From TrEMBL:
Its EC number is 3.7.1.3. GO terms for biological process: anthranilate metabolic process; L-kynurenine catabolic process; L-tryptophan catabolic process to kynurenine; NAD+ biosynthetic process; quinolinate biosynthetic process. This is Kynureninase. Keywords: Hydrolase, Pyridine nucleotide biosynthesis, Pyridoxal phosphate. Signal peptide: none annotated. Pathway: Amino-acid degradation; L-kynurenine degradation; L-alanine and anthranilate from L-kynurenine: step 1/1; Cofactor biosynthesis; NAD(+) biosynthesis; quinolinate from L-kynurenine: step 2/3. One of its GO terms (molecular function) is kynureninase activity. Catalyzes the cleavage of L-kynurenine (L-Kyn) and L-3-hydroxykynurenine (L-3OHKyn) into anthranilic acid (AA) and 3-hydroxyanthranilic acid (3-OHAA), respectively. It catalyses: L-kynurenine + H2O = anthranilate + L-alanine + H(+); 3-hydroxy-L-kynurenine + H2O = 3-hydroxyanthranilate + L-alanine + H(+). It is an enzyme of class 3 (hydrolase). Pyridoxal 5'-phosphate binds at residues 96-97, 125-128, 199, 202, 224, 254, 280. Its cofactor is pyridoxal 5'-phosphate. The modification N6-(pyridoxal phosphate)lysine is found at residue 225.
Amino acid sequence: MAVTLDSARELDRQDPLATFKERFALPEDVLYLDGNSLGAQPLAARKAVAETMDQWRDDLIKGWNQGWFDAPERLGNLLAPVIGAGEGEVVVTDNITLNIFKLLGYIIGQRGDGGGVVLSEGGNFPTDGYIAQGFSRFGGHEHRFLPEGESLEGESLEANLAGVDVVVLSQVNYRTGALRDMAATTRLVHAHGAEVIWDLAHSAGALPVDLNGSGARYAVGCTYKYLNGGPGAPAFIYVQRDNQRHGWQPLSGWHGHAVPFAFDEDYEPAGDITRFRTGTHSALVYSALEASLAMWAEVDMHALRTKSLAMSELFRDCLADLFDPYGITDITPAAGERGSQVSLIDTEHGFAIVQALIARGVIGDYREPGLMRFGFTPLYLSFEDVWQAARHFREVLESGEYRQPRFNVRSAVT
Ligand SMILES: *Cc1c(COP(=O)(O)O)cnc(C)c1O
């Protein structure tokens, strides 16, 4: 390979984030390049869940007054600095799909009577479009798609904004890894009298995000990818401070009520970010996430970004000579224009190559059509891990291993 193992090890010696790896439980024989789908387990998360189990056993319902009930706001405040938000601007709740629905209703509800127009981007993670369609269908609104491929161009976005009330955009595209300029796009959308809901699924914990500095008013994101909250960990909503009291959000449940335990007949939204909660959450999954977020509070996000880009570059450098001979197209954007992943396309063999890698303990993922995705998570991957993963990739191709029939069998979750 063009890059030597010694040079990868030298990068590890100079890595300011190297010690975080010890704080994760990772199987010995696995090189995990799928932290962009499900983050690895922090050791502290296992301990925190065990403690919450004890608390449930010993304190029973008293637990709700011992930190369970206000966990959505407390965790929101822990998360806020990681995404450039302020105190009281983030609440951890529900999942991205529901949170987009809530924000769509909240924003369109402010804009007077009559149907609104919702714009989703083609090529985004499908649930963002699906929920916008469901919202529009049942609310008498119009849903449109921003055509895929046009979606990164400021000018075409402008052409597509006529009459639009709210647009849902990902900061980092889940397939290509392309990173949008959040500040410029937010300005453009606002200048057209529309609002934007930013989806941070592939940017929160992947790179420094600056919601306040970008002028963003609304955002959602999940915590089970780069933020290591665990399977099914709750998502979050960000609403900029001055925009938290504009009306109801449509999933007006008791936990979003101004006085939930008054048990009033009529709904009255809480006067702050709590308005975006719905109903009862799981104290267990919140405790796992809280342990992870406490660790994130120690992370220098600029060091994280530097390492993330260096790792994805190392992976590509190790493999660059193979792409042409094997018919693989590297669609990874340039360093300043990507999130924390490498995206390679092989429509014929991509699925089988990823399965052959998984059989060797190198876990990436495959997304139709033809996309091999490798996520780089600086807290628990070393440069040597990246080098070894690339070595396996090379061996899978050069040996022809991926042609074995067993690597062409599909299961439910890919
Ligand atoms: C992962 C992801 C989601 C997941 O949505 P959930 O409702 O939390 O399951 C949504 N949008 C994007 C862009 C994603 O990458």
